[in-house]
Protein backbone atom coordinates (compact mmCIF):
# COMPACT_ATOMS: atom_id res chain seq x y z
CA UNK A 1 0.00 0.00 0.00
CA UNK A 2 2.76 2.43 0.91
CA UNK A 3 4.59 1.59 -2.33
CA UNK A 4 1.50 2.70 -4.25
CA UNK A 5 1.37 5.78 -2.07
CA UNK A 6 4.96 6.78 -2.81
CA UNK A 7 4.55 5.87 -6.49
CA UNK A 8 1.81 8.50 -6.90
CA UNK A 9 4.03 11.28 -5.61
CA UNK A 10 5.67 13.42 -8.33
CA UNK A 11 9.44 13.09 -8.38
CA UNK A 12 11.46 16.20 -7.73
CA UNK A 13 15.15 16.34 -8.70
CA UNK A 14 17.62 18.67 -7.03
CA UNK A 15 19.23 21.30 -9.23
CA UNK A 16 22.96 21.86 -9.55
CA UNK A 17 23.03 24.61 -6.95
CA UNK A 18 21.69 22.24 -4.35
CA UNK A 19 18.71 24.39 -3.54
CA UNK A 20 16.05 21.69 -3.65
CA UNK A 21 13.80 21.62 -0.68
CA UNK A 22 11.17 19.18 0.41
CA UNK A 23 7.94 19.68 2.17
CA UNK A 24 5.87 17.36 4.24
CA UNK A 25 2.13 17.40 4.31
CA UNK A 26 -0.47 15.60 6.34
CA UNK A 27 -2.54 13.59 3.89
CA UNK A 28 -4.11 10.84 5.91
CA UNK A 29 -5.20 10.00 9.40
CA UNK A 30 -5.36 6.65 11.04
CA UNK A 31 -6.53 5.23 14.31
CA UNK A 32 -4.15 3.62 16.77
CA UNK A 33 -5.53 0.64 18.64
CA UNK A 34 -3.03 1.36 21.41
CA UNK A 35 -1.86 -2.21 21.86
CA UNK A 36 -1.27 -5.62 20.33
CA UNK A 37 -4.17 -8.03 20.54
CA UNK A 38 -2.55 -9.80 23.48
CA UNK A 39 -2.24 -6.61 25.45
CA UNK A 40 -5.43 -4.99 24.24
CA UNK A 41 -7.34 -5.60 27.45
CA UNK A 42 -5.77 -2.58 29.13
CA UNK A 43 -6.07 -0.19 26.23
CA UNK A 44 -9.54 -0.58 24.79
CA UNK A 45 -10.15 2.97 23.66
CA UNK A 46 -8.37 4.14 20.53
CA UNK A 47 -6.19 7.20 20.20
CA UNK A 48 -5.98 9.10 16.93
CA UNK A 49 -2.64 8.76 15.20
CA UNK A 50 -0.93 11.82 13.75
CA UNK A 51 -0.89 12.42 9.99
CA UNK A 52 1.44 10.13 8.03
CA UNK A 53 4.43 11.62 6.27
CA UNK A 54 4.48 12.23 2.56
CA UNK A 55 7.23 13.36 0.25
CA UNK A 56 7.30 15.77 -2.62
CA UNK A 57 10.42 14.11 -3.93
CA UNK A 58 11.56 10.52 -3.80
CA UNK A 59 14.59 9.74 -5.93
CA UNK A 60 17.16 7.64 -4.13
CA UNK A 61 19.28 7.36 -7.23
CA UNK A 62 20.54 10.94 -7.07
CA UNK A 63 24.11 11.35 -5.79
CA UNK A 64 25.17 14.26 -3.63
CA UNK A 65 28.74 15.10 -2.74
CA UNK A 66 30.16 16.98 0.23
CA UNK A 67 33.83 17.73 0.77
CA UNK A 68 35.42 18.02 4.20
CA UNK A 69 34.58 16.42 7.53
CA UNK A 70 32.43 18.05 10.17
CA UNK A 71 31.11 16.82 13.49
CA UNK A 72 27.38 17.21 14.06
CA UNK A 73 25.71 16.12 17.30
CA UNK A 74 28.68 14.00 18.26
CA UNK A 75 28.67 12.06 14.96
CA UNK A 76 31.45 12.55 12.42
CA UNK A 77 29.93 13.38 9.06
CA UNK A 78 31.73 11.51 6.29
CA UNK A 79 33.65 13.50 3.68
CA UNK A 80 31.26 12.22 1.04
CA UNK A 81 27.69 12.22 2.34
CA UNK A 82 26.06 10.34 -0.55
CA UNK A 83 22.78 8.57 -1.01
CA UNK A 84 22.94 4.83 -0.57
CA UNK A 85 21.29 2.37 -3.00
CA UNK A 86 17.57 1.85 -2.69
CA UNK A 87 16.28 -1.29 -0.98
CA UNK A 88 14.65 -2.20 -4.30
CA UNK A 89 18.05 -2.22 -6.01
CA UNK A 90 19.80 -4.77 -3.77
CA UNK A 91 19.17 -8.50 -3.23
CA UNK A 92 17.34 -9.61 -0.09
CA UNK A 93 20.52 -10.94 1.48
CA UNK A 94 22.04 -7.44 1.51
CA UNK A 95 18.99 -5.58 2.81
CA UNK A 96 19.71 -6.09 6.56
CA UNK A 97 23.19 -4.61 6.13
CA UNK A 98 21.85 -1.75 3.97
CA UNK A 99 19.18 -1.07 6.62
CA UNK A 100 21.87 -0.56 9.28
CA UNK A 101 24.03 1.56 6.94
CA UNK A 102 21.07 3.86 6.25
CA UNK A 103 20.33 4.11 9.97
CA UNK A 104 23.94 5.11 10.62
CA UNK A 105 23.78 7.76 7.89
CA UNK A 106 20.59 9.16 9.47
CA UNK A 107 22.36 9.53 12.82
CA UNK A 108 23.89 12.75 11.50
CA UNK A 109 21.83 15.66 12.84
CA UNK A 110 21.88 18.89 10.84
CA UNK A 111 21.41 22.48 11.95
CA UNK A 112 18.02 23.75 10.75
CA UNK A 113 18.30 27.19 12.31
CA UNK A 114 20.19 28.24 9.16
CA UNK A 115 18.07 27.23 6.14
CA UNK A 116 21.01 27.75 3.74
CA UNK A 117 23.35 25.18 5.32
CA UNK A 118 23.83 21.60 4.07
CA UNK A 119 20.88 21.67 1.69
CA UNK A 120 22.06 18.66 -0.33
CA UNK A 121 22.88 16.58 2.73
CA UNK A 122 19.56 17.39 4.39
CA UNK A 123 17.70 16.26 1.28
CA UNK A 124 19.71 13.02 1.10
CA UNK A 125 18.94 12.26 4.73
CA UNK A 126 15.24 12.98 4.25
CA UNK A 127 15.05 10.61 1.28
CA UNK A 128 16.82 7.90 3.29
CA UNK A 129 14.39 8.40 6.17
CA UNK A 130 11.47 8.02 3.76
CA UNK A 131 13.02 4.81 2.41
CA UNK A 132 13.39 3.51 5.97
CA UNK A 133 9.69 4.26 6.61
CA UNK A 134 8.74 2.31 3.48
CA UNK A 135 11.06 -0.56 4.39
CA UNK A 136 9.84 -0.94 7.97
CA UNK A 137 6.25 -0.91 6.68
CA UNK A 138 6.63 -3.40 3.82
CA UNK A 139 9.49 -5.68 4.92
CA UNK A 140 8.57 -9.04 6.42
CA UNK A 141 11.79 -9.78 8.29
CA UNK A 142 12.38 -10.20 12.01
CA UNK A 143 14.71 -7.48 13.27
CA UNK A 144 17.97 -8.64 14.78
CA UNK A 145 19.14 -7.33 18.13
CA UNK A 146 21.83 -5.29 16.36
CA UNK A 147 19.25 -3.72 14.05
CA UNK A 148 17.03 -2.78 17.02
CA UNK A 149 20.00 -1.22 18.78
CA UNK A 150 20.79 0.88 15.70
CA UNK A 151 17.12 1.92 15.34
CA UNK A 152 17.00 3.21 18.93
CA UNK A 153 20.37 4.95 18.47
CA UNK A 154 19.16 6.78 15.35
CA UNK A 155 15.81 7.72 16.91
CA UNK A 156 17.48 8.92 20.12
CA UNK A 157 20.05 11.09 18.35
CA UNK A 158 17.36 12.78 16.24
CA UNK A 159 14.56 13.20 18.77
CA UNK A 160 16.23 13.69 22.15
CA UNK A 161 17.49 17.21 21.71
CA UNK A 162 17.74 20.37 23.75
CA UNK A 163 14.54 22.46 23.51
CA UNK A 164 14.71 25.47 21.23
CA UNK A 165 14.65 28.57 23.47
CA UNK A 166 11.44 30.53 23.06
CA UNK A 167 11.03 34.25 23.82
CA UNK A 168 7.71 33.48 25.55
CA UNK A 169 9.30 31.20 28.17
CA UNK A 170 7.89 33.05 31.15
CA UNK A 171 4.41 33.59 29.80
CA UNK A 172 1.46 32.81 32.06
CA UNK A 173 -0.69 30.13 30.50
CA UNK A 174 -4.21 31.50 30.65
CA UNK A 175 -7.15 30.26 28.66
CA UNK A 176 -7.35 33.40 26.54
CA UNK A 177 -3.67 33.12 25.56
CA UNK A 178 -4.33 29.85 23.75
CA UNK A 179 -6.13 31.55 20.89
CA UNK A 180 -4.00 34.67 20.74
CA UNK A 181 -0.54 33.08 20.50
CA UNK A 182 0.69 30.70 17.81
CA UNK A 183 2.59 27.63 19.09
CA UNK A 184 6.31 27.48 18.29
CA UNK A 185 7.03 25.18 15.33
CA UNK A 186 10.33 23.31 15.20
CA UNK A 187 12.33 24.28 12.07
CA UNK A 188 13.63 20.69 11.82
CA UNK A 189 10.12 19.24 11.53
CA UNK A 190 10.63 18.11 7.91
CA UNK A 191 13.10 15.52 9.29
CA UNK A 192 11.60 14.97 12.74
CA UNK A 193 8.22 14.04 11.30
CA UNK A 194 9.73 11.24 9.21
CA UNK A 195 11.77 9.98 12.20
CA UNK A 196 8.58 9.88 14.30
CA UNK A 197 6.71 8.11 11.52
CA UNK A 198 9.53 5.57 11.17
CA UNK A 199 9.63 4.88 14.90
CA UNK A 200 5.84 4.62 15.16
CA UNK A 201 5.76 2.00 12.43
CA UNK A 202 8.75 0.19 13.94
CA UNK A 203 7.04 -0.08 17.34
CA UNK A 204 3.72 -1.12 15.77
CA UNK A 205 5.31 -3.65 13.40
CA UNK A 206 4.56 -7.33 14.13
CA UNK A 207 8.19 -7.99 13.12
CA UNK A 208 9.41 -6.08 16.21
CA UNK A 209 9.78 -8.62 19.00
CA UNK A 210 8.80 -7.01 22.33
CA UNK A 211 11.01 -9.31 24.41
CA UNK A 212 14.12 -8.21 22.52
CA UNK A 213 13.13 -4.57 21.93
CA UNK A 214 12.44 -3.92 25.64
CA UNK A 215 16.20 -4.01 26.26
CA UNK A 216 16.56 -0.86 24.18
CA UNK A 217 13.14 0.75 24.63
CA UNK A 218 13.86 0.79 28.36
CA UNK A 219 12.96 3.03 31.31
CA UNK A 220 15.60 5.61 30.38
CA UNK A 221 14.25 5.81 26.81
CA UNK A 222 10.66 6.14 28.03
CA UNK A 223 11.62 8.98 30.39
CA UNK A 224 13.31 10.89 27.57
CA UNK A 225 10.24 10.33 25.40
CA UNK A 226 8.02 11.72 28.17
CA UNK A 227 10.26 14.80 28.46
CA UNK A 228 9.45 15.61 24.82
CA UNK A 229 5.74 16.01 25.68
CA UNK A 230 6.57 19.54 26.83
CA UNK A 231 7.22 20.50 23.19
CA UNK A 232 5.36 23.58 22.00
CA UNK A 233 4.84 21.98 18.59
CA UNK A 234 1.39 20.30 18.63
CA UNK A 235 2.37 18.08 15.68
CA UNK A 236 5.19 16.57 17.72
CA UNK A 237 2.91 15.99 20.73
CA UNK A 238 0.43 14.13 18.51
CA UNK A 239 3.13 11.70 17.38
CA UNK A 240 4.42 11.27 20.94
CA UNK A 241 0.90 10.52 22.17
CA UNK A 242 0.41 7.78 19.59
CA UNK A 243 3.88 6.28 20.05
CA UNK A 244 3.69 6.17 23.86
CA UNK A 245 0.26 4.56 23.64
CA UNK A 246 1.69 1.89 21.33
CA UNK A 247 4.63 1.31 23.67
CA UNK A 248 2.21 0.97 26.62
CA UNK A 249 0.21 -1.60 24.68
CA UNK A 250 3.17 -3.63 23.38
CA UNK A 251 5.54 -3.62 26.36
CA UNK A 252 3.47 -4.85 29.29
CA UNK A 253 6.53 -4.85 31.55
CA UNK A 254 6.79 -1.05 31.21
CA UNK A 255 3.17 -0.24 32.09
CA UNK A 256 3.58 0.45 35.84
CA UNK A 257 6.66 2.56 35.16
CA UNK A 258 4.87 4.62 32.47
CA UNK A 259 1.93 5.29 34.80
CA UNK A 260 4.25 6.27 37.65
CA UNK A 261 6.30 8.58 35.40
CA UNK A 262 3.18 10.33 34.11
CA UNK A 263 2.07 10.76 37.73
CA UNK A 264 5.36 12.48 38.51
CA UNK A 265 4.89 14.87 35.59
CA UNK A 266 1.44 15.74 36.93
CA UNK A 267 2.76 16.29 40.48
CA UNK A 268 5.47 18.64 39.24
CA UNK A 269 2.95 20.51 37.10
CA UNK A 270 0.32 20.85 39.86
CA UNK A 271 2.49 21.69 42.85
CA UNK A 272 5.57 23.36 41.33
CA UNK A 273 5.49 24.82 37.83
CA UNK A 274 1.90 24.96 36.48
CA UNK A 275 3.62 25.01 33.08
CA UNK A 276 3.58 22.05 30.70
CA UNK A 277 2.45 21.84 27.09
CA UNK A 278 1.58 18.13 26.97
CA UNK A 279 -0.89 17.61 29.83
CA UNK A 280 -3.84 17.18 27.43
CA UNK A 281 -2.03 14.52 25.39
CA UNK A 282 -0.90 12.62 28.50
CA UNK A 283 -4.47 12.67 29.82
CA UNK A 284 -5.75 11.39 26.50
CA UNK A 285 -3.42 8.39 26.81
CA UNK A 286 -4.53 7.84 30.40
CA UNK A 287 -8.19 8.08 29.42
CA UNK A 288 -7.67 5.13 27.10
CA UNK A 289 -5.70 3.23 29.77
CA UNK A 290 -8.37 3.84 32.43
CA UNK A 291 -10.99 2.57 30.02
CA UNK A 292 -9.20 -0.80 30.06
CA UNK A 293 -8.73 -1.13 33.83
CA UNK A 294 -9.97 -4.44 35.20
CA UNK A 295 -12.46 -4.58 38.06
CA UNK A 296 -12.22 -4.33 40.98
CA UNK A 297 -9.93 -1.32 40.64
CA UNK A 298 -6.50 -1.61 42.24
CA UNK A 299 -5.66 0.65 45.15
CA UNK A 300 -2.87 2.17 43.00
CA UNK A 301 -5.45 3.39 40.48
CA UNK A 302 -7.70 4.89 43.17
CA UNK A 303 -4.72 6.77 44.66
CA UNK A 304 -3.90 8.07 41.19
CA UNK A 305 -7.42 9.50 40.95
CA UNK A 306 -7.21 11.06 44.40
CA UNK A 307 -3.64 12.41 44.27
CA UNK A 308 -3.17 13.36 40.62
CA UNK A 309 -6.39 13.64 38.60
CA UNK A 310 -8.53 15.55 41.11
CA UNK A 311 -5.76 18.08 42.00
CA UNK A 312 -5.35 18.78 38.26
CA UNK A 313 -8.42 21.02 38.68
CA UNK A 314 -6.28 23.48 40.63
CA UNK A 315 -4.00 25.11 37.95
CA UNK A 316 -5.10 28.30 36.23
CA UNK A 317 -4.64 26.81 32.76
CA UNK A 318 -7.31 24.12 33.31
CA UNK A 319 -8.97 25.05 30.00
CA UNK A 320 -5.98 23.58 28.11
CA UNK A 321 -6.78 20.03 29.18
CA UNK A 322 -10.18 20.05 30.92
CA UNK A 323 -11.96 17.99 28.27
CA UNK A 324 -9.46 15.13 28.60
CA UNK A 325 -9.41 15.43 32.41
CA UNK A 326 -13.19 15.31 32.64
CA UNK A 327 -13.27 12.20 30.43
CA UNK A 328 -10.67 10.40 32.57
CA UNK A 329 -12.48 11.19 35.82
CA UNK A 330 -15.87 10.15 34.43
CA UNK A 331 -14.28 6.86 33.34
CA UNK A 332 -13.36 6.17 36.97
CA UNK A 333 -16.92 6.83 38.18
CA UNK A 334 -18.39 4.64 35.45
CA UNK A 335 -15.95 1.86 36.40
CA UNK A 336 -16.72 2.11 40.12
CA UNK A 337 -19.80 4.13 41.11
CA UNK A 338 -18.60 4.20 44.75
CA UNK A 339 -15.93 6.71 43.69
CA UNK A 340 -18.60 9.35 42.87
CA UNK A 341 -18.58 10.71 46.43
CA UNK A 342 -14.75 11.04 46.36
CA UNK A 343 -14.82 12.80 42.99
CA UNK A 344 -17.61 15.24 43.89
CA UNK A 345 -15.96 16.20 47.20
CA UNK A 346 -12.70 16.66 45.30
CA UNK A 347 -14.40 19.02 42.86
CA UNK A 348 -15.89 20.99 45.76
CA UNK A 349 -12.43 21.25 47.36
CA UNK A 350 -10.95 22.91 44.26
CA UNK A 351 -14.07 24.86 43.26
CA UNK A 352 -13.03 28.26 41.84
CA UNK A 353 -14.02 31.35 43.80
CA UNK A 354 -13.34 34.23 41.39
CA UNK A 355 -12.91 32.51 38.00
CA UNK A 356 -16.30 32.27 36.30
CA UNK A 357 -15.05 30.46 33.18
CA UNK A 358 -13.54 27.70 35.36
CA UNK A 359 -16.79 27.54 37.32
CA UNK A 360 -18.73 26.84 34.12
CA UNK A 361 -16.27 24.01 33.33
CA UNK A 362 -16.68 22.56 36.82
CA UNK A 363 -20.47 22.57 36.48
CA UNK A 364 -20.25 20.78 33.12
CA UNK A 365 -17.97 18.12 34.58
CA UNK A 366 -20.18 17.81 37.65
CA UNK A 367 -23.15 17.04 35.42
CA UNK A 368 -21.22 14.22 33.70
CA UNK A 369 -20.19 12.76 37.06
CA UNK A 370 -23.74 12.99 38.46
CA UNK A 371 -25.04 11.17 35.38
CA UNK A 372 -22.95 8.16 36.50
CA UNK A 373 -23.75 8.55 40.23
CA UNK A 374 -26.10 6.21 42.05
CA UNK A 375 -28.43 7.16 44.94
CA UNK A 376 -26.29 5.94 47.91
CA UNK A 377 -23.21 7.94 46.80
CA UNK A 378 -25.38 10.95 45.93
CA UNK A 379 -26.88 11.00 49.43
CA UNK A 380 -23.44 11.01 51.06
CA UNK A 381 -22.38 14.25 49.39
CA UNK A 382 -25.63 16.05 48.51
CA UNK A 383 -25.56 18.57 51.39
CA UNK A 384 -22.18 20.22 50.56
CA UNK A 385 -22.88 19.73 46.85
CA UNK A 386 -26.15 21.70 46.85
CA UNK A 387 -24.74 24.34 49.15
CA UNK A 388 -22.26 25.03 46.34
CA UNK A 389 -24.95 24.81 43.66
CA UNK A 390 -27.03 27.35 45.59
CA UNK A 391 -24.07 29.78 45.48
CA UNK A 392 -23.81 29.17 41.72
CA UNK A 393 -27.53 29.85 41.27
CA UNK A 394 -27.05 33.31 42.78
CA UNK A 395 -23.95 34.10 40.71
CA UNK A 396 -24.09 37.47 38.96
CA UNK A 397 -22.31 35.84 36.01
CA UNK A 398 -25.30 34.63 34.03
CA UNK A 399 -23.45 31.66 32.44
CA UNK A 400 -22.64 30.22 35.86
CA UNK A 401 -26.23 30.56 37.10
CA UNK A 402 -27.61 29.25 33.81
CA UNK A 403 -25.24 26.22 33.81
CA UNK A 404 -26.28 25.35 37.37
CA UNK A 405 -29.97 25.47 36.39
CA UNK A 406 -29.26 23.20 33.39
CA UNK A 407 -28.67 20.34 35.87
CA UNK A 408 -32.46 19.92 35.97
CA UNK A 409 -32.43 19.14 32.23
CA UNK A 410 -30.94 15.71 32.99
CA UNK A 411 -33.59 13.13 33.81
CA UNK A 412 -31.24 11.08 36.02
CA UNK A 413 -30.09 14.09 38.05
CA UNK A 414 -33.64 15.42 38.37
CA UNK A 415 -34.77 12.03 39.73
CA UNK A 416 -31.97 12.03 42.31
CA UNK A 417 -33.01 15.52 43.40
CA UNK A 418 -36.69 14.59 43.58
CA UNK A 419 -35.96 11.52 45.71
CA UNK A 420 -34.01 13.66 48.17
CA UNK A 421 -36.09 16.86 47.91
CA UNK A 422 -36.72 17.11 51.66
CA UNK A 423 -32.98 17.71 52.17
CA UNK A 424 -32.17 19.58 48.93
CA UNK A 425 -35.07 22.05 48.59
CA UNK A 426 -34.48 23.80 51.95
CA UNK A 427 -30.83 24.31 50.92
CA UNK A 428 -31.49 25.84 47.50
CA UNK A 429 -34.89 27.49 48.07
CA UNK A 430 -33.46 30.86 49.19
CA UNK A 431 -31.29 31.01 46.05
CA UNK A 432 -34.28 30.18 43.84
CA UNK A 433 -36.47 32.79 45.53
CA UNK A 434 -33.81 35.53 45.28
CA UNK A 435 -33.27 34.72 41.58
CA UNK A 436 -36.99 34.78 40.89
CA UNK A 437 -37.25 38.24 42.44
CA UNK A 438 -34.05 40.02 41.52
CA UNK A 439 -31.80 38.30 38.94
CA UNK A 440 -30.92 40.66 36.11
CA UNK A 441 -30.71 38.03 33.34
CA UNK A 442 -34.00 37.07 31.72
CA UNK A 443 -32.90 33.52 30.78
CA UNK A 444 -31.77 32.80 34.36
CA UNK A 445 -35.04 34.28 35.66
CA UNK A 446 -37.13 32.02 33.39
CA UNK A 447 -35.15 28.88 34.20
CA UNK A 448 -35.46 29.62 37.93
CA UNK A 449 -39.24 29.89 37.66
CA UNK A 450 -39.32 26.51 35.84
CA UNK A 451 -37.31 24.83 38.62
CA UNK A 452 -39.53 26.40 41.32
CA UNK A 453 -42.59 25.02 39.49
CA UNK A 454 -41.06 21.52 39.39
CA UNK A 455 -40.73 21.54 43.19
CA UNK A 456 -44.17 23.09 43.72
CA UNK A 457 -45.90 20.51 41.50
CA UNK A 458 -43.95 17.68 43.13
CA UNK A 459 -44.51 18.56 46.79
CA UNK A 460 -46.67 21.68 47.46
CA UNK A 461 -46.57 21.19 51.24
CA UNK A 462 -42.76 21.11 51.34
CA UNK A 463 -42.63 24.11 49.00
CA UNK A 464 -44.93 26.13 51.27
CA UNK A 465 -42.88 25.19 54.35
CA UNK A 466 -39.68 26.36 52.65
CA UNK A 467 -41.39 29.59 51.54
CA UNK A 468 -42.67 30.27 55.08
CA UNK A 469 -39.21 29.60 56.54
CA UNK A 470 -37.62 31.88 53.94
CA UNK A 471 -40.08 34.70 54.73
CA UNK A 472 -39.47 34.21 58.45
CA UNK A 473 -35.68 34.33 57.94
CA UNK A 474 -36.11 37.37 55.70
CA UNK A 475 -38.13 39.14 58.42
CA UNK A 476 -35.45 38.31 61.01
CA UNK A 477 -32.74 39.66 58.71
CA UNK A 478 -34.74 42.82 58.17
CA UNK A 479 -35.15 43.21 61.94
CA UNK A 480 -31.41 42.71 62.48
CA UNK A 481 -30.69 45.22 59.74
CA UNK A 482 -33.07 47.78 61.27
CA UNK A 483 -31.49 47.37 64.72
CA UNK A 484 -28.01 47.61 63.28
CA UNK A 485 -28.90 50.83 61.43
CA UNK A 486 -30.46 52.25 64.60
CA UNK A 487 -27.29 51.44 66.57
CA UNK A 488 -25.11 53.17 63.99
CA UNK A 489 -27.44 56.18 63.94
CA UNK A 490 -27.23 56.42 67.74
CA UNK A 491 -23.43 56.23 67.63
CA UNK A 492 -23.30 58.91 64.93
CA UNK A 493 -25.53 61.19 67.04
CA UNK A 494 -23.28 60.71 70.10
CA UNK A 495 -20.20 61.44 68.01
CA UNK A 496 -21.82 64.56 66.53
CA UNK A 497 -22.71 65.89 70.02
CA UNK A 498 -19.13 65.42 71.21
CA UNK A 499 -17.80 67.34 68.22
CA UNK A 500 -20.11 70.31 68.88
CA UNK A 501 -19.17 70.61 72.56
UniProtKB/TrEMBL annotation:
What keywords are annotated for this sequence in UniProt? Answer: Cytoplasm
An example of a Gene Ontology cellular component annotation for this protein is:
protein phosphatase type 2A complex
Q: What is its main location?
A: cytoplasm
Checking Pfam families in the record gives: B56
| GO MF annotation terms | protein phosphatase regulator activity
Query: What residue spans carry the Low complexity bias annotation?
Result: 15-29, 37-57
Q: Name one GO biological process term.
A: signal transduction
Q: Where in the cell is it found?
A: Cytoplasm
Region (Disordered) spans which residues? 1-74
**Is the keyword Zinc-finger assigned to this protein?**
no
Q: Output the superkingdom of the source species.
A: Eukaryota
Where are the membrane-spanning stretches? none
Protein family membership: Belongs to the phosphatase 2A regulatory subunit B56 family.
Q: Provide the function of this protein.
A: The B regulatory subunit might modulate substrate selectivity and catalytic activity, and also might direct the localization of the catalytic enzyme to a particular subcellular compartment.
Question: What protein name applies here?
Answer: Serine/threonine protein phosphatase 2A regulatory subunit
- Species for this entry: Lithospermum erythrorhizon (Purple gromwell)
Amino acid sequence: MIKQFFGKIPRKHSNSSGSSRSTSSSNSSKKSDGASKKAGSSTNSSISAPPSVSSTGYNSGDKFGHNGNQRMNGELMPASYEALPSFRDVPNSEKPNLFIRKLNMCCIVFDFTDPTKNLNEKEIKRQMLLELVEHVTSANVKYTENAMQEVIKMVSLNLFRAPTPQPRENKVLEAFDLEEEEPAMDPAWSHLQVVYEFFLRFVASPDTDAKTAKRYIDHSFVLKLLDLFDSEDPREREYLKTILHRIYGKFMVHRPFIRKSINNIFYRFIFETEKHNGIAELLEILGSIINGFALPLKEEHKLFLLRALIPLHKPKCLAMYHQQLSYSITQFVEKDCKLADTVIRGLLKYWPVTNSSKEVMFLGELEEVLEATQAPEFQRCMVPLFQQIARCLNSLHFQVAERALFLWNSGHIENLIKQNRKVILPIIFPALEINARHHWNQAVHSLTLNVRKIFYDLDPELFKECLARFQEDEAKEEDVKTRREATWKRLEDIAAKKIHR
